[in-house]
Automatic annotation (TrEMBL):
Gene assigned in the entry: rpl15
Function: Binds to the 23S rRNA.
Any one of the GO BP annotations: translation
Subunit structure comment from the entry: Part of the 50S ribosomal subunit.
Keywords on record: Ribonucleoprotein, Ribosomal protein, RNA-binding, rRNA-binding
Any Pfam family hit: Ribosomal_L27A
Example of a GO cellular component annotation carried by this entry: large ribosomal subunit
Transmembrane segments: none
Name of the protein in question: Large ribosomal subunit protein uL15
HAMAP family reported in the protein's UniProt record: Ribosomal_uL15
InterPro entries in alphabetical order: Rbsml_uL15_N, Ribosomal_uL15, Ribosomal_uL15/eL18, Ribosomal_uL15/eL18_sf, Ribosomal_uL15_CS
């Protein structure tokens, strides 16, 4: 029975070239799949370490979100309206109609009314969207919120 012959590449291990030819071929970042952490998803050891310490970053890496859904909505709280009420009244943004102060938030470029804070006056607010909490607070003070369809 013949002895098992070792593979030829074993004799090159530990040497300068190690069966890879001249060194220029093995020098660049392309040989490593990018420098450092780039391409980490395809480098097994780096991926394992990354997943261990940064799970929250990796969790949501699948799927596709349309660019249209990432639009920011400008919003304002009821407390902020109360804080700037005098300024808005002086500049003619707030008008008086019967017993209500009328505020058109669409003219200010604000799309949504949120419910944080309180308001001390009867107001009629024209807005595109409003939270349930905001509507309840304004109705409790005797005011009303009108949702505009646009």
């Amino acid at each position: 029975m013949t002895a098992r012959r070792r593979k030829k590449y074993r004799k090159y291990l530990g040497k300068r070239y190690a069966r890879r030819g001249y060194n220029d071929r093995n020098r660049g970042a392309g040989n490593r799949g990018g420098r450092g952490m780039s391409g980490w998803r395809f480098k097994k050891q780096k991926r394992i370490a990354f997943e261990k310490y940064y799970k929250q970053i990796i969790e949501d890496k699948k799927g596709f979100t349309t660019p249209n859904l990432k639009r920011d909505i400008t919003a304002i709280n009821i407390g902020d309206l109360e804080e700037y009420f005098e300024y808005l009244l002086d500049n003619g943004i707030v008008s008086m109609e019967d017993e209500y102060y009328v505020i058109n938030l669409m003219d200010l470029g604000i799309e949504k009314l949120l419910g944080k804070g309180d308001i001390s006056r009867k107001v009629k607010i024209l807005v595109k969207k409003a939270s349930k909490n905001a509507i309840e607070k304004i109705k409790a003070k005797g005011g009303e919120v009108i949702i505009l369809e646009q």
